[in-house]
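Dear colleague,

Following up on yesterday's call, I've attached the two folding results inline so they're easy to grep. Please treat them as preliminary; we haven't cross-checked anything against experimental data yet. The first protein's sequence and structure tokens come first.
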Amino acid sequence: MFFFFVGGVEQQVSQVLKKEAGRCIRCGSLADLVEYEKVLKLFFVPAWRWPGKGPLMHCDNCSLFFPQSFSLPPNSEPTSASLDHLRCRYCDRAVDSEFKFCPFCGSAL
């Protein structure tokens, strides 16, 4: 007898507390301060929800949840030095903006 389980736990935004409260640490776009909830899904159907511990920042562009203490200021603009180099979202190393793949870990930029 085999038991095949398809499901998992994911985070979802339950309420936006403040729009554009900071910048994303991964992609640099504007991020919102949100309350979130964790959702257990069984066969892609939400089965159980419970609230998160505290507010987090959420980026709509790359769907990243991260603590408010790591957020960049909302009015900060990229500098000319940061335009020449990007950061890999997987290994967090500086990569030349002309590359399409990270030369260190091989992931797509």
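Below is the second protein, in the same order (sequence, then structure):
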Amino acid sequence: MERHDLSRFREQPSLVRASAVARHGKLWLVPTILCALVAVCLTLLYMGGILDPNGNLRQLPIALVNTDQGPTQPGQHQTVGTQVSRAVVAKTPADTVRWRHLSRAQMQDQMASGKIYGALVIPPDFTTSVTALTTPRATARPALTVLTNPGLGSLGSALATRIAQNAAHQASLEIGRQLTAQAPAQSTDTTTRALLGDPITVTTQVGHPIGKHSGLGLTAFYYTLLLVLIAFVGGNIINSGVDAGLGYTDNEIGPWHTRHPTVPISRTQTLLLKMVMTVGITVLTTSLLMIAAIAILGMDATHLPLLWIFSFCASLAVGLGVQAINAAFGGIGQVVSMFVFIALALPSSGATIPLQAVPDFYRFLALFEPMRQLSDGVRAILYFDARADAGLMRGWGMIAIGVALALVFGFAMTLYYDRKGLHRLGPLRAETSRQAP
């Protein structure tokens, strides 16, 4: 009876051919299942969050600023600006937008702290300019202004701009119907009636400017992504390097193979060593990241000391988390940490697509996934003058929680393994060996 494992090949006196080993199903089982799960999960996670931003839109915050000073029209108790404000809210699809009725000063403050994606502004002379259209005193068309906030990302700003422009256009058509009804038919020609039918012009301006080298508001996202990727990859490099140096794994570079004698060290002490190395190496990688992005490539950035400190702490939190997960899960720790820090974090970051435009599942992930909190902190430093209420305070809070969780979870698991006697390997008798083809 044929044996279905690989043990018989271990006793072969000569080299085994790949074709002989490949026929054994057990060799394929675990890699096939894991690769299939990764492919399906990554596809669902990444594609599921971007397919329908308009259909998933919920409560996008946009300011509605009515500075119209009147006067009120005869027979009415409100200005045309107030009518437009009410019409804008009434005609916007339910739950898609959260219109915030703000003063101009409040709007500017929330724009500068990243709390609103845009604004629709009604000017002080709006009623006067509208009523003048049906009289010889008309000198210009009434105008509404749409303000953008590019610091919140190009897609979020574009969504807010489109919504505000559509709302202004609908308000223009509503006012046009009223003006057309008021204007005497015998005194208006075709051109005038066409003007009265859609009387309002809409201008778009940048409400909160950012630097020209800010990637249209995307440098905060990509900078944060680099912080996470460098910490993730670096953490796994440190993990593999320490294990190879201590003799718990083989070290292969091209055709060269090295195996060191095993150092008798506990899991807890190994994790401590890896975390200490993570702290030291993160100082270097954070500095190099800033030098490459800002000094070499010219990325717009202010508050450089604060940016470095925040970047170091953010990357360190991820790196310590990677070490804790690897210590707890062993060989599959890289896959687990990849899902925790990258696969689940990227689509729920809200940095490219606003959280108000993704399905509810991603909004739930955004409550605790680190990428959202870290990108908000970086964005606050880069675009919003390092204001605490622009996301910087939340970013610091998540960093503190992340570091605490990494330390508690990692050392709790290694102490448990050590006390249970679940040692990694016994000491190797062989000395360091090198083999080359």
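For the second protein, one point worth flagging: The chain has 14 helices and eight strands.

Best wishes,
A.L.
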